[in-house]
What we know:
This protein is α/β, with parallel strands linked by helices. It is 37% helix and 20% strand. It contains 10 helices and 11 strands. The protein has helices at 18-30, 50-56, 70-80, 97-105, 120-124, 148-155, 176-183, 195-210, 223-226, 243-257, and strands at 11-14, 34-37, 42-45, 64-67, 91-94, 111-112, 136-142, 159-169, 189-191, 217-220, 236-239. The two termini are 14 Å apart. The mean pLDDT is 92.
Amino acid sequence: MNADRPLEGLGVVITRPRPAAEALAQELERAGARPFVFPALAIEPAEPSPALEAALSQLSRADLAIFVSANAAEHGLAAARRHGPWPPRCRAAAVGEATARALRNSGFAAVISPRERHDSEGLLALEELKAVDGRHILIFRGRGGRELLREALESRGAQVTYVECYRRIRPAADPAALLGAWSRGEIHAVSVLSAETLENFVAMIGAAGAALLPSAGLVVPHDAIARHSAARRFARVAVTDSGADGLVRALARLRVTT
């Protein structure tokens, strides 16, 4: 194996929303992989609504704003700007390094974010999130999703409000080209970031694609996704570390076990 190109010739399906998928494809190409960009999730900003405006109106009184993803940072900050400048008293926290980086790039000098475990559990383990009794916390997120953050923070005495600033949709896409490559043995792994993306992907490739799942590995960022029923249809599952480098390492490990 070439140490500089550990994924040489490995066909990898990238299912992230297109802008993120295309950026990741460049990273994987540098590691020698052959990426197939097939978004199984698309992100759209939430249209202004009374519920969204009411949530944003609480920003001036909030002590902390948690952004669950880079999409939440992008669309949440855009929505917040309609209500004026960011209030100095409201600190920002991020689930994951990509989200923290998006906030820093938007002008937040100090972002509360876990350095090791890049998920909600990692954020909740930080000292800044433990002493929140009486604090007003906004959670910027898409419509729907995990309830862990809210439940945990409310159990610690915080007042929590959702700011649902974007929505996730299943794209309309023809899988014929992807399935053709897969049937020729050119697909070796599929990368997904969420259970919703995994479900969308399986639905989008249909019965013909489902028959090909046992010939490929699946790479996911969390054990909970690895335990999803759809994940068991793949040949094997690898859990990644954060970032593109973590994905490359997971794909390399998956390749060794293939």
